[in-house]
Amino acid sequence: MEILGLYHYWVFAILLMTGFYAVIAKLNLVKKLIGLSLFQAAVFLLYITMGKVDGGTAPIFSDAANAVFSNPLPQVLILTAIVVGISTTALGLGIVVRIKEEYGSIEEDEIQEIDRR
Amino acid sequence: MNAEATILLALTLPLAGAVGIALAGRVSPNLREAVTLVTAAGLAVAVWSLLPVVMAGGRPGVTVTELLPGVEIAFSVEPLGMLFAALASGLWIVNSLYSIGYMRGNNEQHQTRFYVMFAISLAATMGVAFAGNLFTLFVFYEALTLSTYPLVSHKGDEKTVRSARVYLGILLTTSIGLFLPAIIWTYTVVGSGDFTPGGIIEGNIDGPAIGLLLGLFVFGIGKAAVMPVQRWLPAAMVAPTPVSALLHAVAVVKAGVFTVTKVIVYIFGVDFLLAAPSSDWLLYAAAFTIIAASVVALRQQNLKRLLAYSTIAQLSYVVMAAAVLKPLAEIGAALHMVAHAFGKITLFFAAGAIYVAAHKTEIHQLRGIGWRMPITMTAFTIGALSMIGVPPTGGFVSKWYILAGAFAAENYVALFTIILSTVLNAAYFLPIIYMAWFMPETEAAAATHGEAPWPAVLALAITAMLTIAFFFFHGAALELGRQVVENLS
Amino acid sequence: MNGLAQHLPALQVVVPMLVAAFVVLLRPRGLAWAACTVASVLAFGIAVELTQVVLGAGPVTYLMGSWPAPYGIELRVDALSALLLLVVTGASVFALVSGRQSLDAQIEVERQPYFFAAWLLALAGLSGIVVAADAFNIFVFMEISSLASYVLIAGGPDRRALPSVFKYLIMGTIGATFYLIGVGLIYMMTGTLNLADMEFRIHAVAEQNPILAAAGFITVGLALKAAIFPLHVWLPNAYTYAPHMATAFLAACSTKVSLYVLLRFDFFVFQENLAGHAFQFAAYLMPLALLGILVGSAVAMFEKNVKRMLAFSSVAQIGYMMLGASLVTVAGLTAGIVHIFNHALAKGTLFLAVAAFAMVAAGVRLDDLRGIARRMPWTFGAFIVAGLSLIGIPGTAGFVSKWYLISAAMELGPAGLPLVAVILISSLMAVVYIWRIVEVACFAKAADEGTSAVSVSPALITIMWFAALANIYFGLVPELPLTLSGAAAAELLDHLP
To answer: I need a surface site. Which of A19, B327, B375, C50 has the fewest CB within 10 A?
Structure first.
């Protein structure tokens, strides 16, 4: 029961490792960035799920008495982290464009080959 | 000027002189040479003015700065350091005179750089001589290594650079790899590294650790050229001869044995070491170096390399004498520092003069050269006799004291080594003397040449006379040596 | 402190950040550089002022918007932060003031406003990491500085910088994300992000798995950013192909700041709370530090590109800092922390000299530097002084750290002997790789004597010599860095049980 109850952690772990695998194993630079995004998304998931309160609703002020809210702080943290993630991805993609301009390829092994010459 | 200020002057004067030499070098060579001589004379005056103070029992000292807690840059003049400083500063004047003759006679390049680095090296030597604690000594010891590198690599061609690499490599490896940890170990267990009569180690280390620490010191002080860290000395012979003469007969090598002696007397303490069985190996290491180096010298054909191996052996005389751990032997060690300096510098001066005048470097080329260069070869003969230890040369005096100390300690190893090495010294020096005076000239010796330029000849004449004078007038050195060992059993 | 002075911790970050936004608009040539330099100098001034306050009165706390901690965002400047602020802002000032000519030569004119804006953002980010007192802000500033650094590294003319910076981006982001996971796990268990509060609350939950996992994630993430062996692989190429002044700035400070965060977490948050963490910290990190020292120095000995050689040397030097920290004694920590300062001085000077060489020689490979000592004697002199500091010759700043490190290792008794041996061997390896350059520069015949008509700007030579002499000054009068390091070490150890 315990294990099934922690399903969100399992999802987190699987997403994390999938993203990580893509980063390491894929040779195409854009695929690496996709993996990186997946990797970061897993972390977002971790934060959000940890903030969920049983029976809690979105943390927006309401006049209802005894309203139960989910923890707003992780959600705020993740907004920041998402922005950071977007900036990183944008920058990464920009670098990929420049690499394509300079090297004519976005496969890691081909780039290393060109540099070796 | 009081003693403390004089100590600082002794350090800063050569540095100021270096700047002066660099500036004067742009104006004219004669001005530059004049600045060098004036600086050397000024340094000698400053240093010798401390002599009466020390002889009377004074031990002036000055602390400059505390670098780290418990670690200071401090200077303190004691008899051994006084002896060394007086020796080095006095001989710098003579060596500068010689350099003028040699460098100009050989048309050497980059002469200004040469004189500048020489002055800096002398400043470092003064720092070593007057160091009041291990850390200060280490700072100037390293400075001496670095400042002599440009002098050793002066010629700049590939062979020289490779030899200079060996020089620097061995000296830095030993100092950083062995000497530095020994110093830090001392500071860690004792709390300070001050040179104190009677030593500071007692009570803080015992057992085999003593022998180990001694080993780190002796082999870490690579400038003392105890085997197996002696390779740098023959490698340094690629330097111009004035460098070999002053630095590798006097300043650098004496800094090495001086440091070893200081460590034995003022860090370990002679009585303490005598009682510690784990330090016995030092005597055997020194004895081995003496014999081995003398044997290798026998087989050398290049004059400077022969003199280099002779130096290695003579340096270990000092180390062995210090290791005998008896007052008479310690005095002998101090005297030998002076006697060997006078004799060896004469020999190197002569070797350089022969190179300048005749472009000869190998021993077999020296047949009959005595008649072409009588003053030079007379000086050479005197220097060689001093190495062998024949009266009336200075070498006899120091050998006498070392032998006396060895007798007093009933140290038959030392006695045997000295006797054997004397025979070996004769074996490699006498043939040269015989060849020079009693064999006819051969081959291209037909090219007529006379003596080297007069400043060089004058210099070697002076040092030859000093070698003989030391036999008669060694009172001051004896007094200083005696003061080092007073209060010892 | 009153008036503007009381806001100094916040200003330390805000000044560069605001000026960065402004710099983007400065199109006229040289204006962007000037604005960037002015902002750096201001930031350095703030750092000096903060250091004086910390030395006099102790740590400075600042609450953003006056919201009380732990609900609000707290900034805190103590001795360790002050030392790092000096290093970061100092490196920036040195590189900028001396680097105008070099940067002008390497960065295209249209891109300069963006480049200098990125420089200021990196400065703001690095300063922010050092003054922040809560874990998440550290993450945010860490990413700001990293992203800006990526731009800086990719800004030069060498196209090989692009794959290098891509690798750095990937590895750096993974590192930051690991750190984020760790912080998240701690937040989950303690409910707070403020470091001081965390230290207090973590007692109750110290033995549970999430905290242990968090410790692991945070350590690995920061080790990636700090280029601790074997996670250093991004560093050599990134530093080699970056514009020379960017390398001078980043090499002096960027990895050290991540090391700072690692020290904070391990000593403030974890040490007190996890049984055996002290041992684990030492047991895992010390061998890695030793390997880093040996491998870094060894590879440097064989490198043909001078910048990459110095980069591997940096990996070794970071190993020294980690070694000192992993000893967990006052002496060891002082040694590691003071080396942050001394290494920045030495490496910064070396890279400034390399930048000067690069302007005159054809490149920065060993072969390009043949005989360069004759053409550029002043630059070469500064290079030698800094090289001696790197080796650790007495009288230079590098010697002070080495002395402390060896003393700290000797305090361990016989167990410390392998450490001492590693330190000494790596010093000798440093002699080898520095002296290779000396030999080639002094004695080798130049390929083409005096073809380049470029003369190095006096600003570069002056600053370079100023930095070189600073190496000697702090080698003989090391009071300032030692006082700060000693205070920092005492504080860090204070938090241990």
So the answer is: B375
CA distance C285 to C231: 12
Tokens of B247: 């630095």
Using DSSP, state whether B74 is helix, strand or coil: strand
Q: Give the three-class secondary structure for B63.
A: strand
pLDDT, average across residues A60-86: 86
Structural domain of residue C150, as residue ranges?
3-494
Domain ranges of chain A: 3-56+67-116
| Min distance C462 CA to chain A CA atoms (Å) | 36
- Report the Cα A19 to chain-centroid distance in Å: 8
**pLDDT single digits (tens) C412-458:** 888 888 999 999 999 999 999 999 999 888 888 776 655 566 788 88
Q: Which has more confidence, A106 or C270?
A: A106
- Number of structural domains chain C divides into: 1
- Cβ contacts of B188 on chain C, cutoff 8 Å: 407, 410-411
Per-residue pLDDT of A61-70, as tens digits, reads 777 777 788 8
Give the DSSP letter of residue B131.
Answer: B
What pLDDT is attached to residue B109? 79
Residue A41 burial (CB count, 10 A) = 16
Residues in C touching A99 (Cβ below 8 Å): 162-163, 166
Q: Residue B308: name the closest of B152, B138, B122 by CA.
A: B152
What is d(CA A80, CA B19) in angstroms, rounded to the nearest whole number?
A: 61
Q: Which two tokens stand for residue C348?
A: 């910064």
| pLDDT (0 to 100) of residue A66 | 73
ipTM of this complex:
0.94
Under CATH, what is the fold of the domain A3-56+67-116? Helix Hairpins (1.10.287)
Provide the strand spans (E) within B29-94.
61-68, 71-76
Q: CA–CA separation, C290 vs C286, rounded Å?
A: 6
E strand or H helix at C490? helix C479-494
- Read off the amino acid at residue B373: M
Amino acid, single-letter form, for residue B459: A
Distance of CA C468 to the CA centre of its chain: 18
Q: What are phi and psi of B205, to 5 degrees?
A: -135, 145
SS3 breakdown of chain C: % helix, strand, coil, rounded to 5?
Answer: 80, 5, 20
Give me the total of CB pairs closer than 8 Å, taking one residue from chain A and one from chain C. 70
* Contact between chains at A115 and C162 (C-beta distance less than 8 A): no
**Contact (Cβ atoms closer than 8 angstroms) between residue B49 and residue B109:** no
Tell me the chain B residues in contact with residue C443 when contact means C-beta distances shorter than 8 Å: 153, 156, 158, 161
- For chain B, the structural domain boundaries read 1-171+222-264, 280-489
d(CA B315, CA B344): 11
Tokens of B478: 């004896």
The 10 Å Cβ neighbour count of residue B244 is 28
Q: Where are the alpha helices (DSSP H) in B69-133?
A: 79-106, 111-130
Interatomic CA distance for residues B223 and B253, integer angstroms: 5
Residues of chain B with pLDDT under 70: 1, 443-447, 487-489
Asked if the model's pLDDT at residue C497 lies above 80, the reply is no
CA distances in angstroms from C145 to B294, B317, C252, listed in the order given = 66, 64, 14
pLDDT by residue (tens digit) across C111-170?
Answer: 899 999 999 999 999 999 999 998 999 999 999 999 999 999 998 898 899 999 999 999
Q: Is A43 in contact with C177 (Cβ distance < 8 A)? A: yes
Q: Please, which residues have CB within 8 angstroms of residue A28's CB and are 6 or more apart in sequence?
A: A106, A107, A108
Phi, psi (degrees; rounded to nearest 5) at C167: -65, -45
Structural element, H or E, at residue C187: helix C161-190
Contact C443, B238 (CB under 8 A): no
Q: Phi, psi (5° rounding) for residue B437?
A: -95, -35
Alpha-carbon distance of C180 to A16, in angstroms, equals 13
Q: Is the pLDDT of residue A72 over 50?
A: yes
Distance separating alpha carbons of residues C413 and A99, to the nearest angstrom: 53
